[in-house]
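During the second half of the funding period, the structural biology subgroup turned its attention to how the target accommodates small molecules. The most pressing case was S-adenosylmethionine, which had performed well in the primary screen but for which no bound structure existed. We therefore specified the complex as follows and requested a full 3D prediction, including the ligand pose.
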Amino acid sequence: MLRDTIHDQLVLAHNLHKRRAISPHSADTLIGMTVAYLDHAATTEPGRRYKRSLLEALDLRPGLTVLDVGCGPGTDLPGMVAAVTHPPSRSGRASGPEALCSEHIYASPLSVGRVIGVDRDPGMADEARRRCPSSVEILVGDAHELPLDDASVDRARVDRVLQHLADPERALAELHRVVRPGGTVVLADPDWDTLAIADPDTATSRAYTRYVTGHVVRNATIGRELARLLHAAGFAVVEVVAESILFTDYAEAEAILRMPDVARRGWESGALDPHASRAWLSRLAAGPFVGGFTFYTVKAHRPAP
Ligand SMILES: C[S@@+](CC[C@H](N)C(=O)[O-])C[C@H]1O[C@@H](n2cnc3c(N)ncnc32)[C@H](O)[C@@H]1O
């Protein structure tokens, strides 16, 4: 999760744009890597846990319209489809040939809501379309200028997107515009200032965190700012949850945080000492590994007039 956060779009999207100029095949491969990263992050225990919490906090019901800003490959869209779609009626069992299939049940969607995913990256949008039911509307669009009408959605989620944006305040103003009065939004983002990796060379651990916050993630402390920014945008904040994401397995941490890639970039740019950083990486890989960061989820309403 973190890594998709850290490198997820900063490193990979940055590289993606560079590679697009070189070869569309390279770009496809890199999109695949990013999707694989997001997929993996979503299957980790903390990833599953906070995504479940976000879905519950959205309080979805059949018939509602729900928006996922920065939907990526559509990981969270099918769960939202299920939640805004009335369950099939069990009263209309088939009596003809269909009855041979004991599981055949007539669907009677009394109330079918709308699920809309928006992502700036056309590759992500394509992947989301490939994975989601055709009823899901996937739009290529920018969080700073959402391609949606005023007050057109009942619920919205923004999951690990604001940390990457050029202007989070503008994105929240857009969110406020498209969510109807009385509607609910849920947001999630990490606070990379809190990234703490245990090692006897505390100075290198701190330098690594400073490199991440200063050079890898655009809005590295956005997690702690979510409530303040939502309030400033006109939302009423109802809940702020901070949880510690802890890794005690090096391979799992590396899959998410990508310490070797990030540290290498750090010493190549002169921000980290190469000798100390290589020794630091070796010790981390040898274990035992302990490291983590704080992850924020916030729920808010657009006040009704
Ligand atoms: C870390 S991924 C999270 C994806 C998804 N929300 C999830 O939880 O799996 C961030 C996503 O935000 C998208 N994104 C970045 N900047 C954006 C922008 N300005 N407008 C819309 N989407 C953006 C990226 O393309 C990427 O798919």
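Two results from this model are relevant to the next phase. Residues 215 and 266 are 9 Å apart (CA to CA). The domain at 2-301 is CATH 3.40.50.150 (Rossmann fold).
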